[in-house]
Amino acid sequence: MADTASSGRGAGAVAGRGAGGGAFGWRFMVPLVVGSALNPINSSIIATALVPIAARFSVPAGRTAVLVAVLYVASATAQPALGKVAGRFGPRRVFLAGISLVFAGGLIGSLAQSLTLLTVARVVIGVGTSAGYPTAMLLIRRRAERAGIAAPGGVLGAITMAGQLTAALGLPLGGVLVGAFGWRIVFLVNLPVAVLAFVMARLWVPADEPIDTVRTWARDIDLVGVLLFAATFSCLLGFLLSLSGGGARWPALAAALMLLVVLTVRELRATSPLVDLRLLRSNGGLTRTYVRQLCTQLVMYSLMYGVTQWVQDGKGLSAALAGLVMLPMTGMSALVTAPVARRNAVRGPLLAAAVVALGVAVTLRFMTVGTPTAAIIALTVAFGVTASLGAVGNQGALYAQSPARDAGTAAGLMRTFAYLGAILASSLISLSYAHGVTDAGLHSIATGLIAGSSILLLLTALDRRLPRHIDRP
Length: 473
Prior knowledge:
This protein is mostly helical. The protein has helices at residues 2-5, 9-17, 26-45, 50-56, 66-89, 91-111, 115-129, 132-147, 153-181, 185-188, 190-204, 214-218, 223-242, 250-269, 277-282, 284-314, 319-342, 347-364, 373-401, 407-432, 439-461.
């Protein structure tokens, strides 16, 4: 990053606003945006391939759910861990290593002849794609500081849009690709994208500073904490996913709680913990941001997938029409994100997001199969606004509240809480539709959304440490 280190504050600020050059020119940003998008799109694109995979390997359809679960566990664990590694070892090195793993995982999956190898491929892809977001946030943070820019709102907005749009487009894109080329395409598609991202990052992202020895950074990674974190999350995931089958695995929950206690004791005693619990205890604002992120994702995924399933199975629309009903939500999210992000606002967007989300949830509570499709589209458009505002606000809060030296780890933990919200949403939908996709089930989802939105509103309105803007309190 020596190319920006010599810039003065004024020159850096002007450069940072430039669209094509300066501190945040398109060459620097494109590989980071692509890298940040790989994880969310891989988490959703697999859904359309599960049934043909089960048919190919002659296994029950339920067994292929492991391909979803292992990526959740790998990603939730690897994101904070790789953020920590990036802070010690260098974000560009970790980014390139992650992209290499994405290529390897895509290759393994495209050639796999068993469900076991496909599972391995998904783990490798999960770990590899986990490098994208935390390293991007760390690179942006360091570049902004060297260029003398308080907060590159437009840049953060681009990263936000990369995650939001690809997660939403994963399902329809996967359906088109699997229908045209077969299920192996969900692995093959990673190959050209990984090569492109690797080449761009290698050429356009400035090299990291030299490191002394591998031992210096390896000692600070907290491998025991990583393993305990993975085990805790795996058990919790096993319990939450068991709710989908109607029979909760209480031993898994008990194991998760016991492992959580062990993890807590370990992290409080570690000299360089994976999860700095002392920081979370002293930095209540950052902790509340993580909880807001969890609630935001719970609300978003519950509405996105719960309503999609309802308009198909309950209201009787085709899969294509159901996708079209949800498409305006994605479009509105894209339209709102960029202009709001450029203002570097935090508190305002989060308050607006919580209020609109609560209104959407209450409205959903009174919808039935007789509700006009136009009204449903209007509802999803309104939620597109709240989803984008919440994403921009939470990312801005993370940028403002996380210590610069731990920006990568903090960003990784943000994605971990996002995965928890998505998993909780899946459990809520499964429980609500346990006896069929009906209006009553939709209303149960709406009740959960009302609770989540109310928590969002309280966490935002009562948080005195939440800044109005990224660059000032």
